[in-house]
Amino acid sequence: MEKQEKIRKAYTEYVLEHGTPPPSVFQFTKKLKLTEADFYEEYPSFESIEADVWLAFFQQAVQTIEADPVYQTYSVREKLLAFYYTWIEVLRSQRSFVVYSHQRIREASQSASPVAKVRMRRQTPRILEPFRETYFDFVRDLLAEGRESKEVEPRPFLSDRYADGFWMQTLFILNFWVNDLSKNFEKTDTAIEKSVNTAFDLIGRSPLDSLFDLAKFIYQNK
Asked: Taking the model in full, what pTM does it have?
């Protein structure tokens, strides 16, 4: 087992057994028969381990969907749906850890000062930052593909915010699933379908775009 994987596995087991991170890197590595130097070669902190786990969840989901030849025939809307369904399946295999980490993120937000709370709402929690950065690369590629296929309508000032909107959708789906009490998380599947379809209805071409084009044409040809 690679050292990084060994540390990550031991950390997730520890927090699930104790409900809190280890008291120190020294005590944690001692039980693993590793040195502190071994630990710091892989991770700068316990928080960075959690960040790496969240990133790994995302990477596993993307690798799974992209390995399926049928995925390449999907529309952009279908590709994003496939990602979310697969991502939730990956999270299900580690649900106890996801719930634990998600709760820690919420507690950090609730214990912050009012000013810090506002700032945190505008920012991504540090634990999710590597996941967010990689997700943005993924969804921007989908949006570029969507513009080529005419599934995504370029709009001044708004197009640059599409990726941010999809990230907020990702956090919504995560929060919904963590709190979903329905059998086999059926309500989460419905939430994914409705939220993705609504998003693409909004960023796709609409009658308002046709009206804008007509108004622009008339103005230019007065």
From this structure: 0.86
